[in-house]
Amino acid sequence: MILRLFGWLIHRINVHALRVSFDQPFRHSLPVPEEIFHLPIYVTAVGWERTKAGENYPLSDTALLGFNWDDGRTLPEFCLVWLQEGEGSLETKSGQQKVTAGRAFFYRPGEWHRHRPGLTTGWTIYWVHFNGSLPHQWMLGENYNLEGNLPILQADDLFQMQLMRLIQTAHQSPSTNLETFSWQVAGLLTHFVKNESPRQNQRHHSADAQVNRAVEFIWNHSHAFVDVADVVAYVGVGRRALERRFSNELTRSLLDEIQFCRLTRAKRLLAETALPIKQVIYRAGLRSHQHLCLLFQKHLGISPSQFREKERAEQLKS
Hints:
By secondary structure, this protein is α+β, with helices and mostly antiparallel strands. It contains 12 helices and 8 strands.
């Protein structure tokens, strides 16, 4: 009994020590070299932030990760968030919900969302961005706990300790332990897995299940080249019919969605890695340098190299 109590006290001390080890908010983009990129799961960024009661949110903005409440955002990868203190609002296309201190949740690639802290409470959040074939396979299986339209759980001490250890290590040495981070984030995701039989078709971007399948396929393959024909073949609906349903539901075409997905991923890679342009093209599922340049010129009015230079200049200012 004494040994068990002693172990519990040590555990609580360790959790508390990890919680209070950060004095200033930070955000670290982690390198993703070739050997890490090919792992089934890998971490791309970590950080934490604190918004006080009454403060405007977000406190800062970047071209890709920052957003405002009016526009929301769509990410090319997964984002896991733990709300340590305060409370806030989360919203996806399926509706809005409240989240309170101690809860953890994550957004999926291609899922429009927005969140903000409570005006009278503020919040303290810790977050990890990750990607890879493994989490995509898990999401297709739908074998995870949902609350509303998001995977949400009450984070126990073990989850908190695992998350804080990952973030603390990445904060102290963001360029090392990269393979270890992969194992750590995989361990965090197991907390979201449910015990009962999977429920089907729980994620919804629209009222049309075929459109949902098309969107999921596009964003679940953000790291690989796919075209409209691939999407049509996966969904199993005639091309004209799917294009019409897609346009009616989302007011854009299948090709528009594919291009937006590729552009979003390319922006992320250019802004947060030192990968050469050739590797960015490959990892964003694009066929050529010309294709990449056309996308950036069409949507941003600048070249990929100019975008990277602009991002680096903004990062130096902050």
